[in-house]
Design a protein that fits this description.
The structure is a single chain. This protein is mainly alpha-helical. It has one domain: Up-down Bundle (de novo design (two linked rop proteins)), CATH 1.20.1440.60. The chain has four helices and two strands. The chain has a two-stranded antiparallel ribbon. Helix 1 packs antiparallel against helix 4 and helix 2 packs antiparallel against helix 3. It is elongated and about 45 Å long. The protein starts with a strand and ends with a helix.
């Protein structure tokens, strides 16, 4: 199991004093987990004909965010971690895109859109900071 020196949750500096022992300790993973649950609850309200369309797509994208963070954490190299963080960032953008579709189709309210879009953006920023810090040490 990897012990990553990744720092305080607010700045994600790799060189700070905090040692995270498990992906479950990562604030970004915890945020992604809460976000995934919110998306699942939200999509329960989507029309049934979307079950294999938008519902499935946005759910898979949110699961991908937290899964890639977890899998990347336990990889043996920073290069592998950066690949998984890059996939998590891409999945965050995918969720943001899917939220536009949901609001355009009037499946969600403007308030729901605003809240969830900002949460996806926050997770992407956390992931970006971690990713950027990896490049500083290369």
């Amino acid at each position: 199991m990897a012990d990553w020196q990744i720092g305080r949750p607010e700045d994600w500096r790799i060189d700070s004093l905090s040692t995270i022992k498990s992906f479950e300790d990562l604030p970004v993973w915890k945020d992604a987990r809460k976000f995934t649950n919110k998306i699942y609850n939200l999509t329960n309200k989507f029309p049934k004909e979307e079950l294999y369309g938008l519902t499935s797509q946005i759910r898979r994208a949110t699961v991908s965010i937290m899964s890639n963070i977890a899998e990347g954490f336990d990889r043996r190299s920073d290069k592998e971690l950066s690949n998984f963080l890059s996939m998590a960032r891409g999945s965050s953008s995918e969720v943001q895109n899917d939220l536009y579709i949901a609001i355009d189709l009037e499946y969600i309210s403007q308030d729901e859109f605003n809240q969830l879009y900002q949460e996806a953006k926050k997770i992407a920023k956390q992931t970006n900071k971690w990713f950027d810090d990896l490049f500083k040490i290369w």
